[in-house]
Amino acid sequence: xxxxxxxxSDCARLVKNARAFPLGGFPPAPRSAVAPDAPKALFFAPHPxxxxxxxxxxxxxxxxxxxxLVNVAVTQGSKKERQAARLVELQQACNYLGFALQTTxxxxxxxxxxxxxxxxxxxxxxxxxxxxxxLAKHNPRVILFPHERDWNGTHIGVHHxxxxxxxxxxxxxxxxxxxxxxxGAMDDPNLMTEVSEQDLADMITASTFHAGEMQRNPFHxxxxxxxxxxxxxxxxxxxxxxxxxxxxxxAALYRLRKWSQGRVNNVLTRxxxxxxxxxxxxxFP
Length: 285
Known about the structure:
Layout: H1 3-18, E1 40-45, H2 50-53, H3 56-65, E2 68-73, H4 80-97, E3 100-103, H5 114-119, H6 121-138, E4 142-146, H7 153-166, E5 175-180, E6 191-194, H8 197-207, H9 211-216, H10 223-237, E7 251-260, E8 263-266, E9 272-274
Parallel strand pairs: 1-2, 1-4, 2-3, 4-5, 6-9
Antiparallel strand pairs: 5-7, 6-7, 7-8
Helix pairs in contact: 4-8, 6-7
């Protein structure tokens, strides 16, 4: 008897059943105390729900490194009729995880994309100033934002928005940069972060508060499969071609660098696997 047939059937059954699970309405996840004056980490979210999809390392930074995690809602989506509701959903998701929430302007920034950057310089400059002001307000130790080829137009736009804002900061400003991926895989991630079962379950649960989006496309139930595939990719791309795979079940891939002296600096000499037993504070010496 071939056991893999049952394995595939079980996977399909579990995903199908999970689509009928409730959306939102869960009590806040347990959290450890973070000092009010602890350094901050800013997660620049292109859309409400990104914080729960690609925020595995953000969650670990909050829970283990004990940085104050602030989700920056760069946009509230492109559908005006949904923007108010999406902000409410985002507030509920952030409350579940324990993240603070920072908005940009009422209803969020719009037309955050390469075309606006190229064709509407005045509008783009105004949006860059919004992001630069947020950086100055929070003076973060760490920022998280999409990489430059993350396929989705708004994700790519947010990358350039944050980079342009960094270029406007005083020369003494510095922070660690963690670039994320979701729609488009990075060619050169240098960090694979193990994701515990508890953290992944909490990320999926937080995603369900974005009920409108999950009803449209229930990709929250596919997060385990995606994070399992990240282990496959990361073992070779981060660890080196032909290298041994770490004993991770779930993982997320990132690119870690540092903004210092007005430019991007490398901080890792080779790819790193961050296990769930290692505090992510070690990434930011």
